[in-house]
Amino acid sequence: MDYKKLRVAIIGCGRMGQEYAKFYSVLDNTEIVAIAEYNDDRRRAVGERFGVKALYKDAEEMYQRPGEVPDLAVTVLPGKFIKDAVIASAQAGVRGVSTDKPIGARLADVDAMIDTCAERGVVFHGGNLQRARADVQEAAGWLRRGDFGEILGATVHGWGGEISGGGCQHIAVLRLLTQAEITEVVAWGKPQEALAADEDTGLIINGRFTLSTGVEVPVFGEPTPYRGVDVWTEDSLLRWDWGEEMEVYQGFDRNGRRIKSDRTFTRFAWPEYGYLASSILSFISAVENGTEMAVSAHDLRQSLEVAIAAKYSALWGSTPLSLPLQDRSLTLYPRPYRWLGGDIAAF
After folding, report:
1. Which of 203, 208, 286, 324 is buried deepest, with most CB atoms within 10 A?
2. How far apart are CA 99 and CA 294, in angstroms?
3. Cα 303-307-308 angle, rounded to 5 deg
4. Which residues contact 250 (CB under 8 A, 6 or more apart)?
5. What angle do the packed helices 82-92 and 107-119 form, to 10 degrees?
6. What is the pTM for the complete model shown?
């Protein structure tokens, strides 16, 4: 076949940035043409590893060079530096820009990124979330099709430690499986020193989410036998629990215990690359064909907004907070490693 490859720039080449580069380098329809990385030694090493000669300090320097506007700008930076790189990429004229979790700390900054991309017709990808897993997407399709009947309830387990980072996985999966938005948050948080801090390291949240469908979702920050998201109907339960594959139960035995379903998931074509691959493939399809992404920047914003609402609900005496939040200046910072990067912050 004779087709033009999508030109890709990797902006940020730490551990995760190199994982992105690895997958883009094996695809037939993409070509890494530029790398932007502030660490001189890493920039050279990653350029040699992937055979890329166009090496830049950052996105701003890259876009100052004539002809260096890629089709896809893959931004894999610590949170503090995401906004400038995303907006610079959109303004430079890329077709799609990708980022990762957490997308930011201040809602207004995330709004600005999403608005800029929307105004310029740039596809804004959300990156590496388990929401993109092939089995999670397929299970969501079964639920959406009505295979198990009406969704009657859901729970979130283990929502603590870092609700704006790893915790955003829970919110993204919950919204996908229930096909609903979270419209209200009531939360209780501990320990007090974590609740009072600007960042969410060690923050444990218990509470309740109200969905747009009217379903109320208990949220357990304390340890339970599970650590993910359960969704159930009258006789079925689907469980995402950070395992290799979702669990599906349908019906009950004579003792009232749930029966493990014999449904099987479709085998994913790139298992060695995991859900990063399925997320990237959906991004490429969105750019080329206008299809829906498994993870969008909107999904990342919703996760951040719920995390911020939970933190402030707990801080303000378990006040119910409606979403979307009116005050877009509210912030929640992830731990320093996620916000500043491993070269600057202590782990």
Report:
1. 203
2. 13
3. 120
4. 148, 235, 236, 258, 259, 261, 263
5. 10
6. 0.95
Instruction: Specify the fold of 131-271+300-336.
Output: Dihydrodipicolinate Reductase; domain 2 (3.30.360)
Query: Are 218 and 204 a contacting pair, CB within 8 Å?
Result: no
- Per CATH, the homologous superfamily of domain 6-130+287-293 is NAD(P)-binding Rossmann-like Domain (3.40.50.720)
Q: Any idea where the domains of the chain sit in the sequence?
A: 6-130+287-293, 131-271+300-336
- Please give the Cα distance from 317 to 106 (Å, whole number): 22
* Spatial separation of the C-alpha atoms in residues 173 and 299, rounded to whole Å: 10
- Looking up tokens 């949220």 gives 219
Residues β-bridged to residue 207: 187, 219
Angle CA 177–153–215, to nearest 5: 90
Query: Tens place of pLDDT for every residue, the chain, 347 residues?
Result: 446 899 999 999 999 999 999 999 999 999 999 999 999 999 999 999 999 999 999 999 999 987 779 999 999 999 999 999 999 999 999 999 999 999 999 999 999 999 999 999 999 999 999 999 999 999 999 999 999 999 999 999 999 989 998 889 999 999 999 999 999 999 999 999 999 999 999 999 999 999 999 999 999 998 899 999 999 999 999 999 998 899 999 999 999 999 999 999 999 999 999 999 999 999 999 999 999 999 999 999 999 999 999 999 999 999 999 999 999 999 999 999 999 988 876 55
Q: Say which residue the tokens 């859901």 belong to.
A: 154
Q: How far apart are CA 205 and CA 190, in angstroms?
A: 7
